[in-house]
Design a protein that fits this description.
3 helices, 0% strand, mainly alpha, single chain
Length: 94
């Protein structure tokens, strides 16, 4: 194998390893800083501002219901019977 090929592979592997280590160190530092910010708070303050998850990931807030109210339609006995027949037909596979 030519020397320039071996040298380029070794250099590429070294650079790739160094980049991976720098990314891991940066991620560890970011996680450590986030954990340090939440430790200084009081329990009431942290519960009021955010929910705690065991793995430390942020929680997406639940969506507020802003649509129309739930509607209900009263059926006559004949309509109720017709609906029951329709459901029976679908459940039998006809």
């Amino acid at each position: 194998m030519p020397e320039y090929t071996t040298l380029s592979r070794t250099t590429g592997a070294t650079v790739l390893t160094l980049v991976a280590m720098a990314c891991a160190a940066g991620l560890a530092d970011a996680l450590r800083r986030r954990r340090g910010r939440t430790r200084g708070r009081t329990r009431e303050h942290s519960e009021a501002t955010s929910r705690h998850t065991p793995h430390g990931t942020p929680v997406i807030p639940r969506q507020q219901r802003s649509g129309p109210q739930v509607e209900a339609v009263r059926l006559t006995p004949a309509e109720r019977d017709a609906f029951a027949v329709l459901v029976r037909r679908f459940s039998e596979g006809d």
